[in-house]
Specification:
By secondary structure, this protein is α/β, with parallel strands linked by helices. The protein is 35% helix and 23% strand. Helix 4 links the parallel strand 5 and strand 6. Helix 1 packs parallel to helix 3. The longest helix has 11 residues. It is globular, with a radius of gyration of 16 Å.
Length: 239
């Protein structure tokens, strides 16, 4: 299982929000590219980058910082936030993003996944399934669909998605741990890799995740607030 540090970018800085809500910044660090290099130096094999300004409406914001991160690290970067069109995704893949994370555009128009998978290979597309109260939410977690993560996971896997980023919005950024059942239900439903995110607060959480079939876990707040020491997690990075 890969232990994947999160680098969330807002207004050109590395931040951590509570449940993705603007104005809840609890950690603010200058120079996200330096932060990215530090995670690689500590042993990260994959970097999870989110363009929060893109997610909140400004797709082009932070693009130069993203390019800088790609140039300054040698590990793969998976990137999400504000990718609303096939052109947006293609541009990011062409500048060196290893995998794009597609949320609303994939859920609302699954044909986009088919087109990108044919053009770039399914291994470069990840679908973000964000679950709140048992249903997948879209548009920055503001609109609830009628589908569960397993239902959409099965459908989007058939369309060519190469992986799933599953976020439990109910516990995201709350630093209170999480319920394993929603993840286990999704893992049973699909065959493609599933990366978990949301509420990971302790080494015990990571140990428990390592005993599932999860491909990886994204950790943000717990690392930046010192709840988890990244080097301590590496014993669970078995890949």
């Amino acid at each position: 299982m890969y232990i994947i540090p999160a680098v969330d970018i807002k207004n050109g800085k590395c931040v951590q929000l509570v449940q993705g809500k603007p104005g809840t910044e609890q950690v603010i660090i200058e120079n996200p590219d330096v932060v990215a290099q530090e995670w690689e130096s500590k042993g990260a094999k994959i970097l999870h980058v989110i363009n929060l300004d893109g997610a909140f409406g400004n797709t082009s914001e932070n693009l130069e910082i993203i390019k800088k991160i790609i140039k300054t690290v040698s590990i793969p970067v998976q990137l999400g936030g504000g990718i609303r069109t096939i052109e947006d995704a293609s541009n990011l893949l062409d500048i060196g993003v290893e995998k794009v994370i597609l949320g609303t555009m994939a859920v609302e128009n699954p044909k986009n996944i088919e087109e990108l998978s044919k053009e770039y290979g399914s291994n470069r597309t990840i679908v973000a399934l964000d679950s709140k109260d048992g249903k997948v939410v879209v548009k920055g977690w503001t609109e609830k669909t009628e589908k569960t993560a397993p239902e959409l996971g099965i459908s989007l896997e058939k369309r060519g998605a190469g992986g799933i980023l599953f976020t439990n919005v109910d516990v995201e950024g709350m630093m209170n741990g999480f319920n394993m059942t929603p993840l286990e239900d999704l893992l049973k439903a699909v065959d493609i890799p599933v990366i978990y995110s949301g509420g990971v607060t302790s080494l015990e959480d990571i140990k428990n995740l390592s005993e599932t079939d999860a491909y990886g876990v994204v950790i943000g707040s717990a690392l930046y607030k010192g709840k988890i020491n990244y080097e301590d997690t590496l014993k669970y990075q078995g890949l």
